[in-house]
Prior knowledge:
Layout: H1 28-46, H2 52-56, H3 58-68, E1 83-86, H4 92-102, H5 109-113, H6 143-162, E2 170-174, H7 176-180, H8 182-194, E3 199-205, E4 208-209, E5 212-213, H9 222-228, E6 232-237, H10 241-251, E7 258-263, H11 286-295, H12 307-318, H13 321-333, H14 336-347, H15 352-368, E8 373-374, H16 375-389, E9 393-397, H17 401-404, E10 423-425, H18 430-443, E11 447-453, H19 457-470, E12 475-479, H20 497-502, E13 508-510, H21 515-527, E14 533-536, E15 541-542, E16 560-563, E17 571-575, H22 579-592, E18 597-601, H23 605-609, H24 613-620, E19 625-630, H25 638-641, E20 646-649, H26 659-665, H27 670-683
Parallel strand pairs: 1-2, 2-3, 3-7, 6-7, 9-10, 9-11, 11-12, 12-14, 13-14, 17-18, 17-19, 19-20
Antiparallel strand pairs: 4-5, 8-15, 16-18
Amino acid sequence: MPAHASPSPALAPATRQGEAPGIAAVDHARMANAIRALAMDAVEQAKSGHPGMPMGMADVATVLFARFLKFDPADPSWPDRDRFVLSAGHGSMLLYALLYLTGYASVTLDEIRRFRQLGSRTPGHPENFLTPGVETTTGPLGQGLANAVGMAIAERHLAAEFGSLVDHKTYVIASDGDLMEGISQEAIALAGHLRLNRLIVLFDDNNVSIDGPLSLADSVDQVMRFKAAGWNASRIDGHDPSAIAAALEQAQNSDRPVLIACRTTIGFGAPTKSGKASAHGSPLGADEIRGARENLNWPYPPFEIPNDVLAAWRAVGQRGQSIHAEWKRRLAALDAATRAEFERRMRGDLPDRALAAAVTGLKRQLASAPQEIATRVASERALEALVPAMPELLGGSADLTGSNNTRTKSMTAMNAGNYGGRFIHYGVREHGMAAAMNGLALHGGVIPYSGTFLVFSDYARPAIRLAALMGVRVIHVMTHDSIGLGEDGPTHQPVEQLASLRAIPNLLLFRPCDAVETIECWELALQRKDRPSVIALTRQNLPQLRLRMDVDNRCAAGAYQILEGRDDAAVSIFASGSEVAVAVEAAKLLAARRILARVVSVPCLDLFLEQPESVRGAVIGGAPVRIAVEAGVRQGWDAVIGSDGLFVGMRGFGASGPYKELYKHFGITAEAVADAATHRLEKI
């Protein structure tokens, strides 16, 4: 279709939510062109942005929102709304235009005018924590698609528990860049395997990338690729509203996830830039916009939407009100206990009494019968207590279930025949797993956790970073947390990972030293609704250092004195995880040398550094010698020990061998700590 041509009028809206009054009076082309006009005007005013994708996908988005999407702008958090994910987040003006046109209070015309400006609700890429109506934060390509897989899993899982109260779809607009990113393969393979038939992906198949024609870098047949992954997939003309509607209608009753490859023209309507890379990531320019207005028969000034077109779009926004009201009636008709449980789960509130009882019960058991076990095993025992108490917990592992200890005896596996299962076998897909967990958390109703080795956090890092940015509660159980894993060697021994994860703002990294700290760290991770957590756990057994029953969570401040010492102690030793036991032994050696030492366990350096200065000062103390001990790199510890403090840890990569020999080889021993303290005291 030529760039200047106008698509034919739409079919009468008649699916899922029925026809809204006023829509039929305005043809499809004018409704779609309202999106195009707002996109090119906002990008032009900002002198920054991506006009091409919104202009190319306006027809698809118009059909989707006007005829199929179940939503209610008056309540952006309605639990049974369809989820719409703009995985191609660079085309954010498509989403902002839709939110404004359909009547979301969060996006006004003034906010459209302030596109990409500091403090606006229309940032360069969609941010769910900033703009109601935005389901997830996208921009890094492939993430939104994988988030959507998690949302689709959550929908099926909750439907298995709550029945027709949960009955919605997840729609995605994805670009060629989304599908080139490696995470996309992880995501679509998992979705196909689980036969997530409520997931529908609309692929903006425009054959253009930033560098130029897509053929410069890619020649994959995406339809065949998705079919090979177990999807239903087809190609359509993305500017033919009848074809778009027919494909979406067919997708409603699919037995598996659906890909609709929509052949579109990037920058549709632009006289010289349509179909070219020049329409992708730069303002079109005044002359090009003038020509586009002529081609699209859109004679209105910038940011002006004719009353009849705006009224038609606002009618689209009102279509969901009756279905929303009917859903509320069904919710109210439930028995009080089921309704309360559903509402609690969707709010993200914890079952506080059940959680407290589970934590306290396990701590009492450990006080009466101390355990010398690996913290990964301690984590499994914690989960054995937590999973029955918290039905919202949804576990998983990236093909390391037996090593991560993330599946309890009571958990059944989720599969295409049992969405009620509470354990997901993600396969060797760490990145896709982490991004799907973000989608699960964003959907609501579940708290996802999963497992892999700590060194493989690098595979998952982009999704972990986005979890921290969005402030979602996901819990990553990462075992084999140091050279203590032994014989697998330096490829599997994390050295820099602890420091690199601590560097991510809003992420909590827990590294418990024994079974008691492990359950306390789990409790803290669960209680933080607004941030993700990593719990780093050992392969090797550790002694239980906390022997008495503490009702309070001593890990809550991030650090505490685990081995009591006098105020006039000459040495303070700070350690995390497996090295706390090393520190305790070092303190005993120093005592034999008549040197007083105190030991501080630091299960969460992030929480500790967030404490008031007075709290930090009391924990750090005034000892003239400060030493940090951790089987990782020094980075981050100077905030506790100072730049002149001593550090006993790793300065390079590990090696293959039995773990006790490795600790001696790299000098992470009680003797090394005691000697370092003694030598420093001799110089004072």
